[in-house]
Amino acid sequence: MSNSNHWSKEETADFSYTFLAWYEREKRTLPWRENKDPYRIWVSEIMLQQTRVDTVIPYFLNFMTLFPTIKALAEAPEDTLLKAWEGLGYYSRVRNLQKSAIQIMEDFDGKMPQTAAEISTLKGIGPYTTGAIASMAYGLPTPAVDGNVMRVVSRLFEITDDIAKPKSRKIFEETMQDIISRDNPGDFNQAMMDLGSSTCTPKNPSCNLCPVNEFCQSYEKGTVGNYPVKSKKVKAKPVYYVGMIIKNEKGEFLLEKRPTEGLLANMWTFPLFPEEMMTHEVEVPAGGLHEIASEQTQQIVLKQLQEAMTQKYQLHPTFMKRPLPEIKHIFTHLKWFIACYYGQVDQVKLTDLPENCEFVHPENFEKYTFPGPQQKMLAQYQKNIGQKK
DNA sequence: AAGTCGGGGCT
DNA sequence: AGCCCAGACTT
């Protein structure tokens, strides 16, 4: 266990002075730094969770145009909301954002709560975001400990606690509690972010340019490279799917809305089946369905595809013999491999489709929210099939 | 404490 | 290919 703070009152004041002067000089101009509107700060902090500044900026501007107030957010249709988040990832963030907006309308008279305890009751706002909003919007001396802060602080004080462990966050919060500026905690927290992204980077930090290197214990000892201590993550587990790209006579494609909970909740995809469902009668090569050489084995697989389509959708497509080139999509904890088959149906009775399914013309795809794998499947179709006509 | 939940940039 | 990112929630 590391001892956190070794600074005297004078050193602490010295650090704040130097650090805040650097921030005032070098801070980035960002849309959510224009003022201290708690709503803007809140939305930006949610978007910035596990997401880079450059990625967030256009989403933030669009979001503020669409939903300029907490009230507008609370009243927004769910489809519009999800569409505004399309491509940003971690989609539960935007659902929680709206839940909290409704909660603020009902319990806080439409005004953002102004104490850390109340702020942290909102859905999607954990310890980090509570500290960020409380300090930046209301000037409260609340630590906002994220990955940047743990990296910077671990180097400043040579803290060896594993930052991958939930328990360690407390150590860093206590250290920040000791050193955070009482006069300007909001800028102090933001200065930590800016320093972490520009100078005190994970790899090859620019210590010679660091405004506070004279305060840094690991810099003094030449041990910066040892910090932060972080245990390794388990690597993504492979999952194999068969994707069905089904077109009807009107040029419409079969889409399915995913369940309301879990991975990619409420988003639209081409139908997916677990690969095992298609291959329990055959031996699949290590490389997947793409490497099946035998004509006979292919026929068996195709028969399975058709049975699956009949059972689930009451459709009888004519499939291409071989799948499109394999699609790979990596999530944090899963690695999807998708063998896409293209099939056509000549007659459609929409009443027979399951409730969460629709045939949709590509002209109208813009109205549907598509996650990454879906985008790749569509691209693969357009590249190999769509252009031939 | 461990697992779930996305996507993109960098090395 | 692995690592990282302005994390929070569920179990």
UniProtKB/TrEMBL annotation:
It is an enzyme of class 3 (hydrolase). Its cofactor is [4Fe-4S] cluster. Binds 1 [4Fe-4S] cluster. This is Adenine DNA glycosylase. The keyword 4Fe-4S applies. Keywords: 4Fe-4S, DNA damage, DNA repair, Glycosidase, Hydrolase, Iron, Iron-sulfur, Metal-binding. Residues 47-198 form the HhH-GPD domain. Its EC number is 3.2.2.31. One of its GO terms (biological process) is mismatch repair. It comes from the Bacteria. Coiled coil: none annotated. The keyword 4Fe-4S applies. Adenine glycosylase active on G-A mispairs. MutY also corrects error-prone DNA synthesis past GO lesions which are due to the oxidatively damaged form of guanine: 7,8-dihydro-8-oxoguanine (8-oxo-dGTP). It comes from Isobaculum melis. It catalyses: Hydrolyzes free adenine bases from 7,8-dihydro-8-oxoguanine:adenine mismatched double-stranded DNA, leaving an apurinic site. One of its GO terms (molecular function) is metal ion binding. Belongs to the Nth/MutY family.
